[in-house]
Structure formats: structure tokens, C-alpha cells
Amino acid sequence: MTKKRPLILVTNDDGITAPGIRTLIEVMKELGDVVVVAPDSPQSGMGHAITISDTLFCEQVTIKENYKHKEYSCSGTPADCVKIATQEILHRKPDLCVSGINHGSNSSINVIYSGTMSAAVEAGVEGIPAIGFSLLDYSLNADFEPTKKYVKAITKNVIKNGLPTGVVLNVNIPKLSASEIKGMKVCRQANAHWEEEFDKRTNPQGRDYYWLTGTFVNKDKGEDTDEWALQNGYVSVVPVQFDLTAHHFLDDLNTWELND
Amino acid sequence: MTKKRPLILVTNDDGITAPGIRTLIEVMKELGDVVVVAPDSPQSGMGHAITISDTLFCEQVTIKENYKHKEYSCSGTPADCVKIATQEILHRKPDLCVSGINHGSNSSINVIYSGTMSAAVEAGVEGIPAIGFSLLDYSLNADFEPTKKYVKAITKNVIKNGLPTGVVLNVNIPKLSASEIKGMKVCRQANAHWEEEFDKRTNPQGRDYYWLTGTFVNKDKGEDTDEWALQNGYVSVVPVQFDLTAHHFLDDLNTWELND
């Protein structure tokens, strides 16, 4: 990367006014020139959705009067924000894309449902080094102060070292005070899943409907996983790829009688 | 798997009335007992979105009077359909989940944007063998007849062999006549991406908006990729995993000065 101040694209999935992205902007302003392109409303659970059957609005907004960088509010998903930022706002690839800080965990299997991580992955697909940050606290009043040190340290490392093609980082931060966090751990994604429960109700017109709820189940006993790290007071750093090929199964699959 | 007729969950992302899912249902009825739970409207490009901030409706519908299996129309995403099918409709895991047949390609990087594949992945996360099928023809009048032979052959193989934990199949079928298709090829996901272009317009109220368009770019010269197979007249079969950890980068990442 260049030695001049890097151009940093900041986005998220909780919406442009969420406290988490405000913290991320603060930290990034210390490290580079910031442009914000983020959804105009919460997009949690949007996964890697993109807007292909609807129009997209994207307009400059002023969130804080004393901010000197430019911010844009977009009607689309986090992945849309990255696409439109590169093509229509920056007219170049930023040197880095950071997404978050998400209000809530994106560890283990949550990565596939995560709008925060889809923005980072979208940037990665476009060849931009990218990091998604999440704090394990869903509250709008979450304390993001303890996250700053780690967000800054990881970002500085990415600016210094770059990232290999096809890899982005998924960083999750436990809900602990600064003194309780033990440091950072490089991890693999834990093998965990959600056991869904649907809360069935009836609306005033007599029609049944459901709310999706669920219980998170981690059966992975490994001490090298993001879940282990987070439960033991560490910030988890998982390198994430978007070549989804199960390479380990190719040989077996080739023994199948597919063309008989 | 059991020797009695397997219970097959059928879903898609083009909506329950799309021609593609009708073909898939026809083939699956030859192989097992079918239950359909699919979106009430098109969900293309929804990626792995789930509905966590809104209500879900899911109701039994009759699409064709002479169909004896049960069909349910759901207001949510493809991933929602799999979750609600397992928990609220079947009250058990189906023996197999098939998704599609999608109107349009889900090869290479399209897998991450694909609602069709997110349904298959969601089933995989829940431990259900799963396959996503796509035909490289966006038209609602697409000819699905030539796909039947391949859909049946792959599904029979999965019923016979099962799939390893953490792996689902992404099957793409070229837009060719039955006699032109050369057979099936086991492939890896090509390293390709979209170069976006936004079509900027102004609405009657004077507000700018955009339509997302783009050009598909495949720089991967490999002859073992899904793109190569499809361009050369083969049906591509890619095993897909949802452990997104970039295992090959863990050692390097551990050399970073993260805790200094």
C-alpha cells in the first residue's frame, strides 16, 4: 500500500446513524481519509443480498456538523453500499474497506447471515482489503470504547501487511471492559448453528404469523475457534474466504457415477 | 439414508409459481415424498438473508389441483423457508432438500449472492443433504426439459451416497438442448467477479436513483472450474462448504503483531 494516507471506505449493516459505525469512523480518521457509504436503515440478517429488482437511492448526508469527511446514505444493502461507493462515489477502489462495528456477534456460522461481513466480502471480491468488526452486544447503548484499541491495531496491521487475494477478516470483540479483554487470537470459524424456534401468533384479522427466534448451539470443542476465544476473553480474528469450494471433497465426488 | 421413499423438501428463490420449481417438483416426485415450502414472491439476489425484524407468513396453498403433495407459500427468504419447513411444517429434518431450478446462473461468485444456494446451505447447516440447481436461462419461458435427466441423476447419487457434513452441491446446467449437453463435470468455483455499472436516472420528483447492472468477468483460466465446464457444454457440479475459514492463511496471520 502507499505511504500516503490510505482512502478508507466505512460501511455497516446497522445503518448510518448507529453508534457502532460512529466509533469505527472515529478510529479510521486517525489512520486515513474516510468516506462513509452506509445503509439508510438497519440491514441485519441481510446476508449477501444485493438489490437487483429495485431502484437504489444514494445521497450525501450530514450526520455530525463538525465532520469533514463525506458521508452517503444508501437505500440498499451493505453489499450494494460497497458496489455503489466504488463505482459512483469514489470512482476508484479504496485502499481499505471496514464494516461495522456491528451491534451483535458475527462469529462462527453467523458470518453467513451477516450484512456486516457481506460488505467486507463484497470488497474482497472487488480486490479491496477488508475487515468486518462486531461487538458482542446488541444494545444500542453498547459501550464501544474498549473496542477502539483492537480495531486500530488490526487495521494498522492490514494497512501494513495487506491481505492475500480472496481473504478478508472477521473480527469479533467480547462484551467486556478494556481491562478484562485478554488480547487477540487468530481463530478458525467454530462449527456451530442455530436451533430455530418460531413464535407463532395470530394477527387481528385471524391470520397466523411467526417470529423467528432460536438458540445458538456450539458443539465444537476446539480451543482454536472464534467461539472459544470469545468465551475466554479474547478478540477473535478469523480469516474468511469466498471460494466456497469444498476442495477436500472433490476427489470423492469424482468417484460418483454421475454420467452412467 | 433409509430405503423407504425419502422425504424431500423442495424450495427456490424465484417464488413458488416459477416454472423452474415446477420442473424440480416433477422430478422429485419420482424419487420420494415431496413437500414444497417456497417464497411467495421472487427472492433473487437475496443471498443468505433471513427475516429477523419482521413477521413471517407461511400458509398452505394449492398451485395445481391434481398435485397430491403439500405446498406452502412463505413470505420470507429462501433460508427462512428451510427453517420454517423443518420446525413448523415437517416437525423433522427432511432426508433431502433441493432448491431451484433457478432461472439464471449461480456458478462461480454468483453462489454468494444466490437465494437458491442459500436455501441449500441453510439445509446443510441443519445437517440435511442439499442440492441447489440452476439453469443458465433467465427467461420465464426457459426450457427446463433438458435439465430433468441431470437433476434426477445427481439427486439419485446424493440419496445413495449421502453428502459429508458441511458440504452441499451447487449444480449449474448450460442453456443447451438435450443432445448438446455433454454430461456432468465435478468442478471448483471459478475465480470470477462482476464489474458493476450503475444506470443513473432521475425520478419525476427530481431525485437521482440507480439501477444496478454489471458485466461478468472471469479471469480464471483453469479447465477445472464451473465456468469452463458450462462454456464447454457440461453440467457443473461444485461441492460447496460453509466453513468460510481461510485455513491456508492462518499461519501467516499468526505472525502478525496483533498483541504488541
TrEMBL record, chains A, B:
Organism: Salegentibacter mishustinae
Reaction equation(s) it catalyzes: a ribonucleoside 5'-phosphate + H2O = a ribonucleoside + phosphate
List of residues binding a divalent metal cation: D13, D14, S44, N102
InterPro entries cross-referenced by the UniProt entry: SurE, SurE-like_Pase/nucleotidase, SurE-like_sf
Co-factor(s): Mg(2+); a divalent metal cation
Principal subcellular localisation of the protein: cytoplasm
CC per GO annotation: cytoplasm
Co-factor: note: Binds 1 divalent metal cation per subunit.
Molecular-function annotations in GO: 5'-nucleotidase activity; metal ion binding; nucleotide binding
NCBIfam families assigned to the protein according to its UniProt record, in alphabetical order: PRK00346.1-4, PRK00346.2-2, surE
Domain Survival protein SurE-like phosphatase/nucleotidase residue range list: 8-196
Function description: Nucleotidase that shows phosphatase activity on nucleoside 5'-monophosphates.
HAMAP family: SurE
Name of the featured protein: 5'-nucleotidase SurE
Keywords: Cytoplasm, Hydrolase, Metal-binding, Nucleotide-binding
SUPFAM superfamilies hit by this protein: SurE-like
The protein's enzyme class: hydrolase
Compartment list: Cytoplasm
